[in-house]
Q: What sequence folds into this?
């Protein structure tokens, strides 16, 4: 005897739509990334106004990089916890907990550089949302659609564009606390809404071993260390530019903080659009051609940018081409992970790879600030990016190429 579908049961079934789950997860990623990137647009502003005292270029670089490293390393643990408890639990927890450092920054830290570093440290929790969303979304989709689905989810990194477009304007018009209070309210609303709407995929396999043993086992997978290196360059390059580009444009091209933030938003938007495109192309053509093309573009465009060409011509084209390449490469990397890795291990692998990507974004701003402080030029930093992309290209065409066919055999 079959139980009739009541309106309540139909409503519950509707919440299990893969595309609805993807949409809610993507919104959560965007909101958390918006929060994670709040300090970046304020760095040049603080240096100009002297609100925090006299700041060097390295001081600004450290201030904007601290949330990045915490959000990166935290993904290792959060990815493993997501495998165990599911995204339905972890998304509300990460979003709700991040409200605390937001309020600390708003009410206690905006006139103190040391307190801003402390608040930025805990603000990094928002960056771990990535390691929640990838395994959550991955479990809802069949293998041939995972690249596209995870690419769409990854477009939530556009939350950094929201921060770039709004943070300085809100500070100028509504006061220094406004950006933090608004994002805190949005996070709280999302935490409540995601708890009500999100559901883990039917048949999700819950691991029974300890978190430490799962992290150790995942770290030994060939795809893990290969994807870590690729993602450190692709997503790390994106993060580095998205957090440091305002300071670079202000110093190297003498733009105002607002204009620099707007141009950074353009870089972010291109990368965000290209991330799902990279995932979709990887589903159709394979990840290797997408990754190789992307790293090749970065090699050329970083070399061009090292010469500080004018922004009204080739300078802007080079930066936007790098944005497209880094975005598509990020999408293709996780398409490859989704196709090669067992679903029950995707969270753990994602945590490790996501950490590598975030750390890849932590180091370049510090190097750029250090190099500029010694040479008053960003050329060396950009040449280092070009050389790193060469190494990633070689890795893609050799070692990673041998890993990819295994997915064809396994499906």
A:
């Amino acid at each position: 005897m079959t139980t009739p579908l009541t309106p309540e049961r139909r409503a519950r079934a509707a919440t299990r739509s893969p595309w609805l789950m993807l949409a809610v997860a993507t919104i959560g990623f965007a909101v958390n990334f918006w929060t994670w990137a709040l300090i970046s647009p304020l760095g040049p502003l603080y240096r100009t106004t002297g609100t925090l005292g006299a700041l060097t270029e390295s001081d600004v670089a450290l201030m904007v990089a601290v949330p990045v490293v915490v959000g990166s390393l935290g993904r290792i643990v959060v990815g493993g916890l997501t495998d165990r408890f599911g995204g339905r639990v972890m998304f509300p927890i990460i979003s709700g907990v991040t409200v605390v450092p937001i309020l600390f920054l708003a009410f206690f830290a905006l006139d103190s550089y040391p307190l801003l570093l402390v608040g930025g440290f805990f603000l990094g929790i928002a960056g771990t949302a990535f390691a929640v969303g990838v395994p959550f979304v991955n479990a809802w989709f069949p293998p041939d659609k995972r690249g596209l689905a995870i690419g769409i989810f990854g477009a939530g990194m556009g939350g950094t564009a929201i921060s770039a477009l709004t943070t300085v304007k809100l500070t100028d018009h509504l006061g220094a606390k406004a950006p933090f209070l608004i994002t805190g309210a949005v996070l709280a609303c999302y935490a409540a809404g995601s708890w009500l709407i999100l559901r883990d995929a039917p048949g999700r396999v819950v691991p029974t071993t300890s978190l430490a043993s799962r992290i150790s086992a995942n770290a030994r997978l060939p795809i893990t260390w290969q994807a870590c290196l690729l993602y450190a360059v692709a997503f790390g390059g994106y993060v580095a530019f998205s957090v440091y580009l305002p300071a670079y444009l202000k110093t190297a091209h003498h733009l105002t903080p607002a204009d620099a933030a707007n141009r950074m938003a353009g870089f972010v938007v291109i990368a965000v659009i290209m991330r799902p495109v990279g995932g979709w192309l990887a589903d159709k053509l394979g990840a290797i051609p997408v990754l190789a093309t992307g790293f090749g573009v970065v090699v050329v465009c970083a070399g061009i940018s090292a010469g500080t060409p004018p922004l009204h011509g080739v300078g802007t084209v080079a930066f936007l081409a790098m944005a497209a390449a880094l975005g598509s490469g990020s999408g293709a990397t996780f398409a490859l992970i989704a196709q090669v890795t067992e679903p029950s291990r995707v969270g753990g692998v994602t945590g490790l790879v996501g950490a590598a990507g975030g750390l890849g974004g932590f180091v370049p701003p510090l190097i750029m600030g250090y190099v500029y402080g010694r040479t008053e030029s960003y050329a060396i930093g950009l040449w280092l990016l070009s050389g790193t992309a060469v190494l990633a290209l070689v890795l893609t065409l050799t070692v990673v190429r041998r890993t990819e066919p295994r997915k064809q055999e396994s499906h």
